[in-house]
Amino acid sequence: MPANRLFLVRHGQTASNVAQTLGASHDDPLDPVGEAQARAVAAHFARLDLPTPAVYASPFRRAGQTAAAIADALAVPVTVLPGIQEIEVGPQWHGRPYAHLISHVHEIDLPGGAFGFAGGETLEEVADRFLAALRQPLARGQLPIVVSHGGALTAALARLLGQDIRAVWQDPRYTHANTALTQLERHGNGWQLARLADAAHLESKP
């Protein structure tokens, strides 16, 4: 039976998150705050006493480290899931501040109606690869916990919820702080939000 619940989690904090710059490398590790955040979200999942959880991680190091903390708390392995990694922003956006995603949003409106990064990926392309990667985990009948990245999660959520990808990108409610989690529940052929970008577990982190 296909999964009827899905958790999406952003990785813990890294140095590039603190610097607020785009285009972090695939091997950008968690910093000490990020490690504490990973432990906090892992403890939160352990308290939920979930049936048959299955933990998946982006191929990027920071997601793998966060997923490993969750998997250890749940006594399950981590499966690396290519396709759920962060948006490739391309050379024109690499190193630019996060603030430009708001102040220069007009640059993300590309010729031909696409929405994304010239020389990198569009959000539609990210959503395509993310949902393609999710097909097998969702079909296995377990409860997937998927650790990914802020921009990729926004693109995927827009697609999963049937929302306009531009509107979701510009809606601050969909912005995931480090280790914030979203819970989706399947209703019929679609998904609905049970929790969105929830980081309450960080209020009690050790």
UniProtKB/TrEMBL annotation:
SMART domains: PGAM (SM00855). Transmembrane segments: none annotated. InterPro entries: His_Pase_superF_clade-1, His_PPase_superfam, PG/BPGM_mutase_AS, PGM_Phosphatase. Keywords: Glycolysis, Hydrolase, Isomerase. GO terms for molecular function: hydrolase activity. Its EC number is 3.1.3.-. Gene3D superfamilies: Phosphoglycerate mutase-like. This is Histidine phosphatase family protein.
